[in-house]
Design a protein that fits this description.
Blueprint: E1 5-8, H1 22-29, H2 34-38, E2 51-54, H3 55-69
Antiparallel strand pairs: 1-2
């Protein structure tokens, strides 16, 4: 779904996993600060050492980067 929580590894936007919700991601990873990271709150760029975003935001960013390269 577009609201899946995705941990992102690097600048190439490599997806490391997929969770049905932020809550599920926090339970399975034990990282407690995923929500502020996904919501792009100031001072919360990463959670557990990874960038996190919703699938819909990931798709938009990936499309934007592909457009810039073409």
């Amino acid at each position: 779904s577009l609201h899946d929580a995705l941990p992102i590894y690097d600048d190439k936007l490599t997806i490391l996993g997929e969770f049905n919700s932020i809550h599920q991601a926090e339970i399975e990873t034990t990282f407690t600060n995923i929500w502020p990271c996904v919501k792009k709150k100031k001072g919360h760029k990463t959670a557990g050492g990874f960038r996190w975003m919703y699938r819909k935001d990931y798709n938009e960013l990936k499309k934007q980067l592909e457009n810039e390269l073409s």
